Amino acid sequence: QVQLVESGGGLVQAGGSLRLSCAASASGFVINAMGWYRQAPGQQRELIAAITSGGTTNYADSVKGRFAISRDNAKNTMYLQMNSLEPEDTAVYYCNAQASRLGATFRYRGQGTQVTVSS
After folding, report:
1. Strands 113-118 and 10-13
2. Which of 24, 33, 32, 61 is closest to 46 using CA atoms?
3. How many angstroms from the chain centroid is the CA of residue 66?
4. In 3D, which of 75, 94, 72 has the Cα closest to residue 9?
5. Cys-Cys with 59: which of 17, 24, 39, 64 at CB 3.0–4.6 Å?
6. Closest CA to 33 of 7, 2, 54, 5
7. Burial 17-43 (b: 16+ CB within 10 A, else e)
8. What share of the chain is helix, strand, coil (3-state, %, to 5)?
9. Which pLDDT does position 77 carry in this prediction?
10. What pLDDT is attached to residue 1?
11. CB distance 74 to 1 below 8 Å
């Protein structure tokens, strides 16, 4: 079993910054790709950033140039640096990981952390 725990959310004014962390407990598993999703009230969940185990990154157009995803494989931890935050970034942010063990691949998701951006 893989457990993902997000932290770093909170309330920030527009134009401010936050850094989210996602710590993975993954005994016996290899963590492959990881990503950040977000879901605003009344909207569908949206993949906003992803990173492979080798460090290749991808971003949704809505956050490109403002957010930066990174990971520390030794610590099984992923980060999301969010700059120039806008009220439209208000959402619950979820960490997602693809993990493999004995040839099988599984997907896991954390409980989420609330990010609120005030205007």
Report:
1. parallel
2. 61
3. 14
4. 94
5. 64
6. 54
7. ebebbbbbebeebebebbbbbbeeeee
8. 5, 60, 35
9. 95
10. 87
11. no
**pLDDT score, position 113:** 97
Terminus-to-terminus CA distance in the chain, angstroms?
40
pLDDT value at position 27?
87
> Tokens in use for 97?
């990981």
Distance in angstroms (rounded) separating the CA atoms of residues 23 and 87: 26
Q: Which pairs count as long-range contacts for 23-27, CB under 8 Å and 24+ apart, including other chains?
A: 23/75, 23/76, 23/77, 24/76, 24/77, 24/78, 24/95, 24/97, 24/99, 24/108, 25/76, 26/2, 26/76, 26/97, 26/99
The label of the residue with tokens 């079993």 reads 1
The reported pLDDT for the residue numbered 26 is 84
The residue assigned the tokens 């997907």 is: 107
Q: Which two tokens stand for residue 40?
A: 């605003």
DSSP readout, 69-87? EEEEGGGTEEEEEE-S--G
For 16-32, what is each residue's pLDDT tens digit? Answer: 999 999 999 988 999 99
